[in-house]
Design a protein that fits this description.
By secondary structure, the chain is mostly beta strands. The protein has two domains: 55 residues, no CATH class; 46 residues, no CATH class. 11% of the residues lie in helices and 37% in strands.
Length: 115
């Protein structure tokens, strides 16, 4: 899990986000200045496009909930350029750690598991 402080320059305050290692699912956030962590009932797809973040230390003591940890199967899949990606099955749905899945919600690594 990563803890990201948003540094995007815009008119409203930035917050701290608790996301998975691939930075595509957010579990909770803390409003700037409150120190209170608000957890989402279900992790949501997190987008970093056109936003800036700085990884910070988890001083809030937030721990990823057991419900969002993979309980199904996982596979290591070789990418076309020699990288390895993890495809995980959670609640009957497949996800991948590759950038393509992060941005498009689908990829050839997941498709190779379905076959």
């Amino acid at each position: 899990m990563k803890v990201l402080f948003e540094t995007t320059d815009w008119e409203w305050p930035n917050h701290v986000y608790f996301v998975n290692d691939a930075k595509d699912k957010c579990y909770a956030y803390s409003k700037r200045g409150t120190g209170v962590v608000e957890e989402f009932k279900v992790p949501y797809r997190f987008g970093t496009s056109k936003r800036k973040f700085k990884e910070v230390t988890n001083t809030w003591g937030y721990v990823e909930p057991e419900l969002v940890k993979p309980t199904g199967k996982s596979w290591i899949v070789a990418g076309s350029k020699g990288n390895s990606y993890t495809v995980t099955e959670e609640a009957g749905e497949l996800s991948c750690t590759c950038t393509g899945f992060k941005y498009y919600g689908k990829c050839k690594h997941v498709e190779s598991i379905k076959v």
